[in-house]
């Protein structure tokens, strides 16, 4: 069985099969798929906490990006003490440590990285082009969004297809996050490449009151 099966098991939540495979093939625990995603990151992306814990407990060495994703602050600290130039670098799949920590809601890691001077506006160097604030808003992490904005993150920066942080917050119906973004200069008239405003996003997802709030 190739590691392709392993990633599918992790994605599908077939944890017994994934764990048995890794116990029989321990070297595969550090291998990545064609997109540069490791088994640990795949488990994190799939919100498969059981596999996150299983893999993390068996990894001999965790990357900065893996550690940032799962909130392993001590490992993040040690990595950046020994190799500070990694701070604003990109994981094999294109995201920064700050972007990953923002997406996964790892507030302590976000605070630490910002304290070191991580760039809060540095977008992923992949097709998604998401900056940390996009990631925080997509996952509705209000506190992290506030930290990023305070550090100077651009509230109107577009990602793939022209989506802004406000589009994401509106799409999720997150009123508090919408208000935070508007308070800090988010443009309610911003349009995606398909011509959709944040109000359109809110309306489509069944948040009519929020859509009304977002109309010029």
UniProtKB/TrEMBL annotation:
It holds the Pfam family Ank_2. Residues 202-216 have a biased composition (Basic and acidic residues). This is Ankyrin repeat domain-containing protein. Gene3D superfamilies: Ankyrin repeat-containing domain (1.25.40.20). SMART domains: ANK. ANK repeats lie at residues 93-125, 128-160, 161-193. Residues 193-216 are annotated as: Disordered. Keywords: ANK repeat, Repeat. It comes from Shiella aurantiaca.
